[in-house]
Amino acid sequence: MNKSIWKYITTDQCNDFLLSFNLLAPTNLSPEKQLACLYAVSNSIESHYTTTYLKKKTGGHRVIHEPSPLLKKIQKNILVHVLEPQACSVYATAYQKEKSLLDNAAPHIGKKQVYKLDIDDFFDSISFTMVFQRAFPREYFPPQAAGILTQLCCFNDCLPQGAPTSPMISNLVLKPFDDYIGQWCRERNIAYTRYCDDMTFSGEFNVKKLHHKVRAFLEALDFSLNQKKTKLLATGKQQIVTGITVNEKMQVPKKYRREVRQSAYYCLNYGTASHLKRMNEGNGELDPETYLNSLLGKINFILSVNPSDKEFSLLKEEISKLLSHS
């Protein structure tokens, strides 16, 4: 579609365009009141977020901006009706219903070297302008509507971590990068995948040349690399991609499996409450039911990588029974 066609759109037509996405559904509001609500929220977006700080295991804090119930409802409808119908790059493996951590790890099995790079301050680096241009492109969205949609998805002029729209938008923003770097790597027999801000490359290649290529393109898009998280894993080292070992086959690392096995043993033999007390976690921060659900999630992760693991299949049954009686 010719971009210039939108210069003829009227305000009423733009409003009808916005209404067609049912951003407040389900609702009994009239079209006029729906529009008034959308414009009111977009013009006072700061008042619709609550900021919290979560401690990172590696130190520091992760800033989460939680949208209000009304804004979250609008954003979920934007996600379903506006963003998800758009295609992400085949190299992006996060935040998509049909893909998982396994899809991110599988291309890197049995490779001579695995090179891992990380995008620094990923969500904070995605600006209002990037969202406006790449999540709601002029080919399909009139500028007035794109502006409203962008306002509804941004906070403090960047992509908020905590909004349901942010993950999908990040994939759309990085699509030009993923497609270009993916094609460049494929021509050189290099496997490439990206899971959120984690990029993984594997095969036989000149590390310095690849690093320079990736860094230069990212910087051209106003992103930068987190040099502290750059890792080169040769064949002789344990090659872990998004929590999965890929040296010879996909497997959850031994340390992770050992810790899960040990936690399950203590819960089954001494009781969950006793185990939490022993871990000094029984101080109200974590209750037995929450802990068991978390443990079951870890077991399910192990089984998703290796469904035929009899030991953890049995542990799943036993922890599930324990959870049903908690």
From TrEMBL:
Q: Which InterPro entries match?
A: DNA/RNA_pol_sf, GrpII_Intron_Splice-Mob/Def, Reverse_transcriptase_msDNA, RT_dom
GO annotations under biological process? Answer: defense response to virus
- Enzyme class, one word? transferase
**Domain Reverse transcriptase residue range list:** 55-234
Q: Which family does it belong to?
A: Belongs to the bacterial reverse transcriptase family.
- Report what the protein is called: RNA-directed DNA polymerase
The answer, when asked if Metal-binding is one of the entry's keywords, is yes
Under Pfam families, the record lists: RVT_1
Query: Which segment of the chain is annotated as a signal peptide?
Result: none
EC identifiers of the protein: 2.7.7.49
- Native source species: Vagococcus acidifermentans
Keywords from UniProt, A to Z, are: Antiviral defense, Magnesium, Metal-binding, Nucleotidyltransferase, RNA-directed DNA polymerase, Transferase
What catalytic reaction does the record list? Answer: DNA(n) + a 2'-deoxyribonucleoside 5'-triphosphate = DNA(n+1) + diphosphate
Under the GO molecular function aspect, what terms does this record hold?
A: metal ion binding; RNA binding; RNA-directed DNA polymerase activity
